[in-house]
Amino acid sequence: MAWPDDSRFAPAPAPRGRTRIRLSGIAGVALVVAGAGAIAAAVLAQQHAPSPAPSAAGAVGAAANAKGPSLRRSVPVSVSIPEIGVRSKLLSLGLNPDGSIAVPSLATSADEAAWYKYSVTPGQVGAAVIEGHVDSYQGPAVFFRLGALRPGNQIDVTLADGITAVFRVTGVREYAKDEYPAATIYGPTDDAALRLITCGGDFDYATRHYLSSVVVFAVLSSSSRPATALAAGSGPP
Q1: Which residue of 33, 75, 94, 119 is most buried, as measured by CB atoms within 10 A?
Q2: Which has the closest alpha carbon to 143: 33, 19, 3?
Q3: How far is CA 8 from the centre of its chain?
Q4: 2.40.260.10, 1.10.3720.10, 1.10.8.60, 3.40.50.2300: CATH of 9-47+72-231
Q5: Once rounded to an integer, what is the mean pLDDT over residues 144-172?
Q6: Which residues contact 97 (CB under 8 A, 6 or more apart)?
Q7: Is the pLDDT of residue 235 over 70?
Q8: How far is 169 from 61, CA to CA, in rounded Å?
Q9: How many Å apart are CA 94 and CA 123, to the nearest integer?
C-alpha cells in the first residue's frame, strides 16, 4: 500500500508531541495497494469487498452541538468490530521517510490494523485514525468487510490503561481518491471521533492502485473498565 500524491491535507506530528493537522503538499490521504499482486488472490477467488450502501452514508460526526464523552490519552492496543468479525491488535505507525503515512506490511501484517500515532488516541477529543488493508497476497485482509458496516454498529478499542472505548458508527462512505475530503477526515472535531480507513472501489491494474477509499466515521458513546478496576473502586477517567 501507498498513499496517493494528490492530497492537500496530511496529518503530521506537531512540535513537542502535540498532534495537529497542517496544510501540506506531501502524500497522505487514501489507502491504496501498490501492486496488482496484492489483490490477485482475492480476485482469482472471486471475492469482492463490500461497498458502503448509499443508505449507510449517515453523518461524519455527532449531531451539532452534541457534546459527548471523552477519555484521557492512552495508546490503543486492540480493536474489535463484532458486526464484521474483526479482532486485531493495533500496530502504532507514523510516517515514511518521504512524508507519506506508513501502513502495515502486506507480507507480515495484512491481518493487523494500525493506529496513526500522530492522531489523538481513541477517546480523546479529536479524530483518531485507524487504518488497515482490504486484501493481501493471500486474500481478504483485516478490513475486508469494513464497507459492510452501518450507522449504529459498534467499534471497541482497548487502550493501554485497560479501558475499552466504545464507539458508535455514524456513517460509512466511499470516496474517489481525487475527491478524498482530507480536511473532514483528519481535521479538528469537537467530539471524540474515530476514523477507520481502507481501500475501496475498483482496482486499476495499469497504476496498481485502488481508485477509492472506504471511510467509517464513528463517535465515542461510552467506555468500560476491567472488572478488577471496578472492584478496586477506580474513579472515572
Answers
A1: 33
A2: 33
A3: 19
A4: 2.40.260.10
A5: 98
A6: none
A7: no
A8: 9
A9: 19
pLDDT tens, 82-113? Answer: 999 999 999 999 999 988 889 999 999 999 99
Domain spans, the chain = 9-47+72-231
Rounded Cα–Cα distance for residues 58 and 172 (Å): 7
Q: DSSP H helical segments within 45-197, as ranges?
A: 182-186
Amino acid at 231: A
Other C-beta atoms within 10 Å of 1: how many? 27
How many whole angstroms separate alpha carbon 89 and alpha carbon 112? 6
229's enclosing H/E stretch is: helix 227-231
Instruction: Determine the residue type at 13.
Output: P
- What integer pLDDT is reported at residue 62 of this predicted model? 80
The string of DSSP codes covering 33-58 is -S-THHHHHHHHTT--PPPPPGGG--
- Residue 79 has phi, psi (to 5 degrees) of -135, 140
Q: How is residue 72 written as a grid cell? A: 484521557
Cα separation, 171 vs 168, whole angstroms: 9
Q: 8: pLDDT confidence band, cut at 50, 70 and 90?
A: very low
